[in-house]
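User: Continuing from earlier, I have the next pair ready.

Assistant: Great, send them over.

User: Here they are, in order.

Assistant: Folding the first of the pair now:
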Amino acid sequence: MLDDFEFSVFGEQFRVREESHPDRASSYNFAWLNGPAEGTYGFSVGVFAADAASPGNGLHPRMTRDQLMAEARNFIEGFYAPGGIGEEDFPEHVAAQPEKTHFASVASQRLADSTTPFSGLVAQ
């Protein structure tokens, strides 16, 4: 099992916690430490044993740190994109690096290229 770890993407700080489930799935809970709602907002990503491309021990698929950081990057790009969750639900929240103006075009391309088996948003 992956130890909890923290990292930064575009100045946004995350803590990731891995959970293994009895149905041969793994989930990763991302706490957005400097995000909206006083750091209580985040999202989760799940992978399932049927995804043969996932590294792991055969019992529970695993994501690498690089894959997890890519998930956070995709989330941030979509969050701050025009019409994204940030603009709609958290208009008072300011990006840690507001000079990053390429979120919309990059987010659109990444969504089109996404091969993630499951990704969902949750309040933590």
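And the other member of the pair:
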Amino acid sequence: MNILAVGVLLLYMQTLSELARLARASTASGDAVARSASPVAHGVAAIVLLAALVLSVYKPRGRTGWGSRRRRTAEADLGIA
């Protein structure tokens, strides 16, 4: 998985290099860079991936399989139905 991610990042570096070259070469209006939706799309994708990361790490107590089993065990030990 990490090797795939590194490969994608290395390929994306070519896109960033091209955008940097366009930014240096563009006039004050910045038309070439403004027309490119790539940075916006990748920014949105990064936010989605960050949200997935947070949701995969944050697990409220009792909402995971482990938490549910632990709660049932504790209730059974206390005699709570």
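Worth noting for the second one:
The radius of gyration is 24 Å. The mean pLDDT is 77.
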